[in-house]
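Blinded run. Sample ID left blank on purpose so nobody reads anything into the name before looking at the predicted structure. Input follows.
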Amino acid sequence: MFKNFLRVYLYVIVLIFFSACGSKNIQEIKIVIPSPPNEPKVFFDISYSGDISFTKVSVLDAFIGERIAFTTKNLVKPYGVAAFGDSVYVTDTAVGAVFDIDEKLKKVSFIGDSSPGKLALPVGIAVDDNGSIYVSDSKNASILVYGKDKKLLRAFGGRLELNKPTGISINNKLKVLYAVDTKAHNIKAYSLDGKMLFTFGKRGKGAGEFNFPTNIAIDRRNDNIAVVDTQNFRVQVFDKNGKFIRKFGKIGDRPGMFARPKGIGVDSDGNIYVADSAFNNVQVFNEKGELLIFFGSAGKFIGQFSLIAGVYIDRYDRIYVVDGFNRRVQIYQYMSERWKNDNPEKYKEIKGE
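Blinded prediction complete.
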């Protein structure tokens, strides 16, 4: 578990950084949170912007902008993120498609960029245990499902059920998809075949009520649901059936407060990560809502963010953070006890032993 550090120091070694690329090809970056000699909890792994992330360029070329091919396969306005297998899936509201960034093959392809299943305004994204990809289309008020072959399998929701779907998350154990309906100020639960199961929440400021909620995450330990209640400047936690459990956070500019909370994720220890697009950082809370650490600041360098958006944490505690205006996804690693046991040499390296 995290210790109660209210201030985080970033241990950063940056030789030269070219912000558009976000790749380890042109820089070696070490970010450890908190900084030595404290016990490390999170470290930066890698960043992806699209095709450019797999283009090898020299430091000098990167610095002066030579021989860098900017293609349509680079992120423009990313928002949501999920991962499955070797793929990092990123919704892009400007491109109107989902980027499939294949870490193993080092290539980029698209989902929902053509009919049938062409996306208009993709926002939220989630993947089930079979590898099927679920995308919320806010403009068309629907959720589209694609197979591993990127072909449309089905769509559900529609304007009779949804107003403006945004963040989505799947409980693979229960086979339930939870969708945030931002303009309806509620959460809708669906079976994975698209049948509406139940709805919870309404507009308001009380416990269990929302004011323009945006994103959602599942605690895999206990099936609890964490929802970013954006315009109430807080996070609310519910059980799998939508029963209110607790809330934390309030408007302000001090650690533990929120200004424009957006993305959310939950790690294997139940810690809750909340991205704030005003602070351009990620605050980490324990399951009781107590602030543990935070990382990030405004800027273009790795470890900094500009209009931070979606967050996703996979089963291996990789933390995917969408860095919107910097047109990239930064990936960090939470060093749980399981991770340290599975990666003893990497752990020693991070500690500087």
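Unblinding after everyone has recorded impressions. The first strand starts at residue 11 and ends at 14.
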